[in-house]
């Protein structure tokens, strides 16, 4: 079943391991987010994205005057 969360996760990993275009894995990730928003994979992905955003903000260059 192509809408099964485990199948989608496997497709995401497989598309990255086989060097498919980024759009392919992004499509699977979007499908996963839309269909299984409360799945641990989606929650973990969101947490990692938020953490990366936080780190980026901490290391933005400051402008000296």
TrEMBL record:
Gene3D superfamilies: Tetratricopeptide repeat domain (1.25.40.10). It holds the Pfam family Coatomer_E. InterPro entries: Coatomer_esu, TPR-like_helical_dom_sf. GO terms for cellular component: COPI vesicle coat; Golgi membrane. It is a peripheral membrane protein. One of its GO terms (biological process) is protein transport. It comes from the Eukaryota. Oligomeric complex that consists of at least the alpha, beta, beta', gamma, delta, epsilon and zeta subunits. Belongs to the COPE family. This is Coatomer subunit epsilon. It comes from Rotaria socialis.
